[in-house]
Amino acid sequence: MLNSIMQVNGELLRRPDGKSGTMATQWQMLMKEAFLQDLGKLQPKDTHQIIAKVNTLVHNPLPDGDVKKQLIYHPGKPYRIRSGDYRILYNFDDANVCVYRIERRNENTYKQNLMTAPIEGLDNEFDDVRAFSEAPTGDAWYQEEWFKPRDTSRLLPEPITSELLNKLHVPKGYHQRLLAAKTEQELYNCEGQVDDAVILQLIHELFETPLEQAMQQPNLVLKEVDDLLRYKEGELLTFLLHLSPEQEKYAHWPMNASGPTFVKGGPGTGKSTVALYRIRSLLEQLTKTNKAPRILFTTYTKALIKSSEQLLQQLLGNQAQYVRVDTVDKLARELLHHAGQVKDILSEREQFALIKQAVDETPKTGSPLQQLAQKQTLERMGYEYLLQEFNTVIIARQLNSVDNYQKASRNGRKVRLNANQRAMLWKIYERFCALQEASGKETWQQRRAHAERIVEQSPLAQSYDVVVIDEAQDLDPSAIRLLIKLCKAPNRIFVTADANQSIYGSGFSWQDVHACLKFQGRTSILRANYRSTQEIGEAAQSYLTYGALEPEQIERQYIHSGPMPDARSVHNAYYEAQLLASFFRKAARSFRLTLGSCALLCPSEHAGKTLAQALSDQGLEATFMTGDDLNLTRSGIKVLVLHSSKGLEFPIVALAGFVGSSYPYFPSSASEEAQREILARERRTMFVGMTRAMRALLVITPTDPGTSLFEGFDATYWNFTRKI
Ligand SMILES: Nc1ncnc2c1ncn2[C@@H]1O[C@H](COP(=O)(O)OP(=O)(O)OP(=O)(O)O)[C@@H](O)[C@H]1O
Question: Could you say which residues bind ATP here (predicted)?
Answer without folding.
Answer: 265-272
